[in-house]
Amino acid sequence: MQIGKIHSWKKVIAQIILLALPTVMLACYLLWNANRFYNILQNQWILQGSYFAAGILLATVFYSFRFRFFTTTLVLGLLYYGVYKLLGSFSVGEFDAFFVSVQFMLFAVLFTVGWITGFGFSRSRYYTIFWSVFLLAVQIVIISKTSDYKAANMIGAFAPVLAYAFYIIFTAELIRNMNEDETSFGWFITKRLLGFGVVVLALLLAVLSIFQTDFKAIEKEWGNAEGKYDPNKGSGGESMTKTNKDGSVSNNDQTKLTSSLHKGKRLVFVAKLDNFFEGGTAPNPLYFTAYYYTKFDTLTQAFEIDSLMPDNDLFRPNPSKIPLYFAKKDSAVIKNTHATIARKVVNAEVYKVLLSPDEFIAPSTAFFCQPIPVPNEYKDQYKSAYRAKMWVSDLNSAYFIYNPAGNESLEQFQEQRFQALRSVTSYTGVDKKLLDYYTYMPSNTDYDSLRQLAKRITANAVTPIDKMIAIRDYFLSKDEFDQPLFKYSDNPGIPGIPSASKLNYFLFENRKGYCAYFAGATLFMLRALGIPSRVAAGFLTIDRSSKNPGWYWFYEDQAHAWVQVFFPGYGWIDFDTTVPDVNTQQAPQPDETPPLNMQDAYFVADGTVTSIDTITKKLQLKVSKLLFHDKDYETANPEQTMLDVSLATVSKDTGVVTLGTIKKGMHITTASYAEILKNITASEQDSLSDVIKKLHQPIPVDQIKIIDPENEKLQKKKEAAANETPTDWLQLMWILLGTIAACTAVAFLLPWCIWLYYDAKARNATEVKAQAFNRYTAAMFYLHVLGYSRQGKGPVEFAVAIDQQFNTSFVAFNNVYQQLKYSTVPLTAKQAGVIEGFYTPFIQSVKTKVPLKTRATAFLNIYNTISYFAQSKK
């Protein structure tokens, strides 16, 4: 007995070409993406794609015949079971059996998904909707596995799936309603798909452009654009530092209150700090500051920098862009500290190991940066170096700052500092703008309990410093069992409710956290009391060196956050309320020798390379800035100079490079320690040109530093990123749901929008032929959407059926329309009157017969609209 067919071969071929093959291509793309994140797939996406392709192609052909789905699928399942047992009998060894079973499982799953999809395309009208939603869900899961949340990547990942979803729904309906007897079937399909492609492209561009800002917010919130992943720390969680793409380390420009903190053990930089206690022998260490966090995002619960903070006293030069031995200074930051009491200038030298070339870090408040060369014998250890000058408070000291935790000698030492600060009793006379900014708190109820706590624990304190001490002592207090009330923890956990305040959870429930928790809680309690404060981020300083006093080693696990409090006259003073971390082992004791015996350069020239000869080791430089015996010279008309580079060491901020790296047009700085330059002097009246003429050329140079233009671009990106506002982590879900909802809304509103367009054209046409065409089109579309389709009927037969159903004059109108369409005979006045008087009564009659609820439901059915454009218009 011959099995009957449901679809003709023409329709089956159309389903294979227009439905199955695009689906296979998208499935291969999704499998390729999934293979990057799931080890079980073993990166065999082509083979896996062939499993799916076999299933969908076989099912499309198979179900064009009258086979039942459940019966045949049951047979397929039994066949799987039989093959599985057969494979088990041939496998040798437990490992081989497991491997083969996993491979067969992948085949069975992918082939079955393809098989079901082939059936759905062949037999089910609504399967394409389920299938599209399923693919979107799969893509969401795959994207959630990546750590590279970039706007372009997310848009690129979802755009193909969204476009496919629109395409597959439209094309399936197009094939379902195809007229197989149409002579120009190929052109019929092509023109509709081209038109549909233009519409979908426009919709996708509109939807994705609307949400592009939110995608970029996700990139800022979750993205790895600045290399937050550190192989030594693993992925996930928060870190006080970040690893850049070039492997260097920078401080994070924000710190979040998260459930875990990752710490590395690598050496970041070494510093020499010329700050000693009275007598000049005992070193007085200072915390090194990178950023001030003055904003708090209540959605992401993150402390952030604010470039618009009033009286900005943060000095942030890019050392990699400053010529060697030349200096960048900013005296405005000194003025913005409002500090005139007990201040002095302190010098520091920073030698970078992993610290990023464009990163500047120094004790606060820095105002001067001068790149210096690394001695040749240390170039393997240190990539670059700079000098810094700071306007430092006599009251600031790591010993003063750090939480004493019961150390009596340290408490006595700190008391001298506190006694001086007790002279500040109020903030009368402080600029209102500064005071309002640095005492701002969120107004929601989460912070009311925090305000009450601050008032309770400082009830007996009078001056601002005593209130600060009371808060510090609260973190050092003990519970009823004589155990520490607060503990340090890199894994403090998170509240049970995702949106709950993590600071409240830290203060009132688990009482465990890392430095950002202690600093953040201190900040808001101080602000609740009207005391201006901010969070500082950088590195805490530990004096480990007994051989070389004043030298300090800074490791990743010393990245830290603490609080600065403003005192009129004294400026910003550091306080650290973080309790000691007794469970974590500190970074290893440094055993390297610091870079000593730095040479003074007699000649430093900055300019552009005009020629380089690597054979004769001669370099011609167009000099625009000159430093000669520590005196600056600069000119608007650069002077050509010949340099002898035969003994020169060439470096970039990333380390030592060869002479061949230097190219014409590069910006470089050269330095010379040659003794022949020692006794050559220049007068006060000499210009740069005069100095050059006094020197014997070629001038021997010992150091060449290439100023890399890429660092400037990275710095600009960094500054731009710092001003972006991060978004809530839940934003990802809402954006994805919003995108799907927007596309769905557009799809459901599309029939109504098309109808409004046709109706407007029908009512506004003035010329008779245009009136006839527009009114016929609008009437046919309206009837089709309401469910009254021609379904292969001729124009007259269909018009008669409509007149019988709705008591209209469609037959008379149709006769005139057909004459106007196919005949050149002019219309009579009576026929023109039929055209003129048809449309409005016709629409009204249909509305009278079809209830509003039925009309509304019909217009929400997108398939009716798709089938109208898919059907033959003959």
TrEMBL record:
Q: Which InterPro entries match?
A: Bact_TGase-like, Papain-like_cys_pep_sf, Transglutaminase-like
Q: Show the taxonomic lineage.
A: Bacteria, Pseudomonadati, Bacteroidota, Chitinophagia, Chitinophagales
Q: Which UniProt keywords apply?
A: Membrane, Transmembrane, Transmembrane helix
Q: Where is the composition biased (Polar residues)?
A: 238-257
The protein here is known as Transglutaminase-like domain-containing protein
Among Pfam families, the record links this protein to: Transglut_core
Question: Signal peptide location in the record?
Answer: none
**Transmembrane helix found in the keyword field:** yes
Recorded source organism is Limnovirga soli
Residues in domain Transglutaminase-like? 507-579
Show the segment(s) annotated as Disordered. Answer: 228-257
Membrane-crossing residues? Answer: 12-32, 44-65, 72-92, 98-119, 126-145, 151-172, 193-211, 732-758
> Which PANTHER family does the entry link to?
PROTEIN-GLUTAMINE GAMMA-GLUTAMYLTRANSFERASE
Gene3D superfamilies referenced in this protein's UniProt entry, alphabetically: 3.10.620.30
